[in-house]
Amino acid sequence: MDAHLAFELAGVDAIGQGSLVASGELSATELLDAAITRVEAARDLNAVITDLFERGREQAATLDADGSLRGPDAGPVAGVPFLLKDLGASLAGAPEAMGSRAFRTHIATETAGIIERYLAAGLVVFGKTNTPEWGNHCTTEPSLFGPTVNPWSPLITPGGSSGGSAAAVAAGVVPAASGGDGTGSIRVPASCCGIVGLKPRRARTSFAPGAGHGMEGLVNNHALTRSVRDSAALLDIVAGAAPGDPYSAPPPAAPYLTSMYELPAPQKILIATTSPFPGTTTDPEVAAAVEATGLVLESLGHHVEPGAPTIDPDEVTDAIAVLHTVSNAQLHAMATAHLGREPHEDEFEASTWVMVREGFHTTGVAYAAAIDAVHAQTRRFVTAMGDHDVLLVPTLLTPPPPYALLDQPRGTTRAFFDVEFATTGWTTLANVTGWAAISLPLGTTSGGLPIGVQLMAPDETILLQLAGQLEAATPWASRRPARWVAPVAN
Q: Locate the Amidase domain: which residues (predicted)?
């Protein structure tokens, strides 16, 4: 493919690229070749850590040959190149290190159900993206692969744990990439990298075939995108239960891509700029971005008033810490089975080792109490929302933070999350409650760095409708980070 066109396509979202294939203007193979050109041009970002180029070329050639990508019946993103986060998105036969030195030789033996749905929709998988060890950190700087560079500045983290995916999307390497979110791992990198990050409501997507849910329902899988419509289209692909799932979210009344264009009824929106965790503060530029978004929503006919639900911050933080220690102990057992021996301490990040060791001693009573606390705080949160429909809050309480902050050991897992929540604030409450939440790139700092603004609601449809309205009222598509994919040399 002509290199100039390869870089021109960097600014086209997934639905736009899919329409080029459906119309016959380009083939899936040509789109893939263009994406590979952009991967090579952005190697210094360290966003893509596993190349699956030949696998992608074989898939694209098959799709081009069978003719299913052409015509009005083709799916909206069929034939579009796609990257998988190297955690929670297993692909049989592909490396799956999960950011851990203990899994550096691990090869996935099964394909996750959500990935099967991506493939069935015609997305062309051709690589995997960087992630911190086991998704433990809201930054992406694993010792195994090294840090991913934020395309906006090499001095700030791209966020995590879906930081590799976010950086690749923000830089224009791909229009969309997969992600997962346990305490903000889609929305934090979306905020740091100036893109769209939707965490679906609990049980919207399946964990088949390997699990019923992730971390007692805290974890949700979806994607990072530059446009709201791409997020809606990808959610249509993966939404819905798989056979054997322990529970599932009620199906939407209409496809998300259809309903996002419908004008929503006026919503009752609570707006808060302060942190739900005492002793932490919100940066004034972040608060200003949230307040400006509230004014835009008011101009669109919605009712915005100050206020926020309250939770017991100690109960929430203690519960999150306990659930992580148990999860890490379970992953340690998985590493032991993979290696055929006990992993060594130096095969883990220092902060992971703290969680693993605490997990060895976490009692069943403590684990059950953590689950009960999550449910109790969910009821408290929802009751406090009253008859309000949506919560408008910062994604991060600060501008994009520096490296070496959100991955450091703090002596205990509880202390680790005290530091994380002083930066992330509201994100974890969407995981605790199971509510849907979306981060939108609606603000910038005085230095030109992105600020994410977050909307939370019980369901995704209203969030996508509001996000679509905000995207039209304050468009961000023309914003480009300093490290946008390299231009073609003259």
A: 30-458
Q: Distance from first CA to last CA of the chain, Å, rounded?
A: 17
Query: Partners of 153 in the beta sheet?
Result: 150
**Model pLDDT for residues 350-365, shown as the tens digit of each residue:** 999 999 999 999 999 9
Rg (alpha carbons) of the chain, rounded to whole number: 21
Instruction: Please list, in sequence order, all residues whose beta carbon lies within 8 angstroms of the beta carbon of residue 482, skipping any fewer than 6 positions away.
Output: 151, 152, 153
- Is 394 within a domain? yes
Token pair of 266 as six digits: 């006026």
Is residue 143 flagged as an active site residue?
Answer: no
Edge-to-edge, what's the strand order for the sheet holding 220-225? 48-51, 124-129, 81-85, 176-181, 220-225, 196-199, 436-444, 450-457, 390-394, 268-271, 303-306
Least confident range from 63-67, 281-285, 420-424: namely 63-67
In a domain, 464, yes or no: yes
pLDDT of residue 488 exceeding 50 = no
- Asked whether the predicted pLDDT for residue 383 surpasses 80, the reply is yes
Residue 250 contacts residue 458 (beta carbons within 8 Å): no
Quote the pLDDT of residue 1.
67
Of 100, 153, 161, 231, which residue is the catalytic one? 161
- Per cent of the chain over pLDDT 90 is 96
Strand partners, 128: 50, 84
Is 85 in the active site?
yes
Task: Name residue, tokens 């889609």.
Answer: 186
Please, what is the angle between helix 14-22 and helix 228-238, to 10°? 70
In a domain, 483, yes or no: no
User: Out of 27, 100, 178, 185, which one is annotated catalytic?
Assistant: 185
Residue 466: give its domain's CATH number: 3.90.1300.10
Average pLDDT in the 367-379 region?
A: 98
Q: Which of 19, 27, 85, 90 is catalytic?
A: 85
Query: Range of 85's domain?
Result: 3-473
In tens, the pLDDT along 248-277 reads 999 999 999 999 999 999 999 999 999 999
